[in-house]
Please model this.
Amino acid sequence: MKHSLGAIALALAAPAAFAQSSVTIYGIVDLDGQYLSGHAKQVLLTSGGQSGSRIGFKGSEDLGSGYFADFVLEGGLNVDTGGSGQGGQLFGRQALGALRTPFGTASAGRQYSSVYTQSGDFSEFANTSIGATTAVIGGFAGGYEPIRGSANAAATSTATGSELNGSPARVNNSFRYTSPVFSGFKASFLYGAGEVTGNTNNTRLFDYSLRYTGYGLDAMVSYVDDKASNGATAATPNAKTSVGITTVSAAYTIGAFKVEGGFLNVNDKRPADLDGKGYWVGGDYKFGQNVVRAQWVENNPNKKITTLGKTNAYGVGYEYDFSKRTNLYTSLTRFQNDASASGTFVGRIGGSTPAGLTTATDRSVTEFVLGVRHAF
Model:
């Protein structure tokens, strides 16, 4: 009897020894006011100036022997209007399940691409809607958009999500393998399934990346091969449909100082051939609860193909951390936009250019921002 009772007790206790699980609710509420001065003046209240406002759920279960089951469900919020971000998708920022093992991590769902990671992690103003942000880069001639993740009308597909998602900032229907860290190096491969019957290979996305962290240096290189943009059809099976995005970025920290920057090149192999390049260099200095930052960004379309001019953004910013969760931030940025034959405005201010803020002959804009960010 004693042995039976002992066996039952062990059976009941065994799951608790390794099946430890946790679920966390988290989020960011970020609101800012903007004053824009160009051909006309504009005052805006926007959401997500420093970090995209969001609410999320994440969990992890310890399966034992170094194995973990994880999930993330994260949706964007437009706090200024109360609406949902990412085109109204419930979990438009991230939605994935993952299995972590001693041999690496396998994850699947809606996931960030390496382009989005680099333009966010290695930029002083990230890839949000204010300051000298890396979101200025892309959309060459209204075409392929690697940074902002807003697909143009003719570039919809299941691999990159469609109009509500965009390519390739976040990739739907994707599988990723991330290696363990070896001497500071970590590699990753992501596959975005096209899910088009009889045409899968012409609507897929590959994303290769390598990152090194150590001795104050953080560096990353990646290449994205996206066949989901204007994919070939059964009527044109041999059409060139691929867009290649090469991105290189790095940051070096020494004491209270950090310098960082990056380079992005879009090689559009489609007939439109809307190539372009982007560059950014910035740095910050932290002292006490204060952070001072500055950055320059350039968006440079291929002028051999398009008559669009380039955009340069010069920005300085200041952040005061009230606590680990709440901070005040402000920035002043000058956007200089070259002329173009069509009068198209290339730059990005607060997500889009308010009507009348620029004209065909008066394109440059000065932006002042004051905002508050709270994480919970």
